[in-house]
Amino acid sequence: MTSVSPSPSPTPVLEQGTPGLRAEAPLILDTEPPRTLGFRDQAAFWTNLGVSLIGFQSAATVLVVNGKNLSIPAALTAVVVGTVIGSVMLGVAAVIGTRAGAPAMAILRGLFGTRLSYLPTVLNIVQCLGWGVFELTVIAMGANALFDGGPHWLYVLAAGALTTAMTIRPLGSIAVLRKYVAVAVGIAMLFFTVELLRRGVPSPKDGSWSGFLPAVDAVIAVSISFVPLAADYTRHAKSTRSSFWGAFSGYTVSQVWCYVVGLMALLQVGGDADKIFTTFMGITAGWVFFAVLVLREADQSFANVYSTAMSVQNLFPRIDRRILTVALGALVTGLALLVTDFSGYEAFLGLIGAVFVPLSAVLAVDFFFGAGRREGGWDLSESAPTRWLTLLPWAVGFVVYQLIYPAELTGWASWWPTFWTHAQNALHFQPQVWTSASLFSFVVPALLTWALTPLLRKGH
Predict the structure, then answer these.
(1) Which of 71, 194, 279, 408 could form a disulfide with 265 if both were Cys (CB 3.0 to 4.6 A apart)?
(2) In terms of one coarse class, where is the protein primarily found (predicted)?
């Protein structure tokens, strides 16, 4: 792996060279990936990732912002706008992954240099582990609602085992998702949509448009969490066209649908996210379709565990990915056994957005307009030189995000929002109704990276 390939290679690589075996993902980093995923594979994959039990609960971050209810039109608009913006970022990352033919964090060797790429790699590992723990926990919560109780630890262990098994043959798992799971999920979602509409949708009290942009930011943060994972899968795409439209269309449709169903279910229980699963179970025969959603939630934890392994391979490129995924699956399962609540979930989303929204801006501008356009493209080898200057727009974007929308960390980290409040006062800056953290933290580093393009092209 020395530079970004100008076009995808159509040659499939069979795992371990076994004749007749379906092409699978390489075992180590520096191996040409098989290009087996077409538009339908990718659309189905991203459609499945756009529907989530966590997504249903995330609707609470849109319905209620800063203690105030949004109106139904405001909440729905926030969902659509936030999803479309996040999906465009996802689609761009998908295209870069297809062109580079490398996992997401290995691609950052070209942006930052190999050693400096370890910084976002470690942050992405933390993000993926956090999401993996959230996913196994919410699967256990769903199973608890499905079976009206039962041992939490057993549900977590079962979900962890299924997750780990899927990561061993990732391309095979994506094929299964396309052939069987996507259809079942679509049927389940259609059933709940019809049944919830038949019940009627109560209006939240005193709903307004106040808090619209923070709600958009919360939706973008969920979408953006997949941006640093996208290339782990789209490096196997047959074309950039299929990778962009597969990611954009599949994720946009399913996440909007997921949030809409989540909003309808939340309103049935007065906006209480902890009771949202009871809405689904309270529908006649709802347990059958809810079981489908609980079982398929494993594709979320699969994506996070597998991408954690891909990130670790940027640090240790010659470790067999199967060993990594098994070890990481066990780690995530163990951590999920210790989680008791989601009290830090919204703050977690804020930090994800602050880190990866500006990073996606710097990545896209430098790849399409900066050093990525030089002859030979980016250097993705283990000796790729450090490019310190690319840290500047990323850091500026992070600061912009936190100044507008500080992560509301609590406990030992309660100093964090206080620090940013003091910074706002020192700069005589107060967020306004039109200041979107996600949009400003994308546009500012994008423009700064573009302005620095002459320097970034000349050297490192």
Answers:
(1) 279
(2) membrane
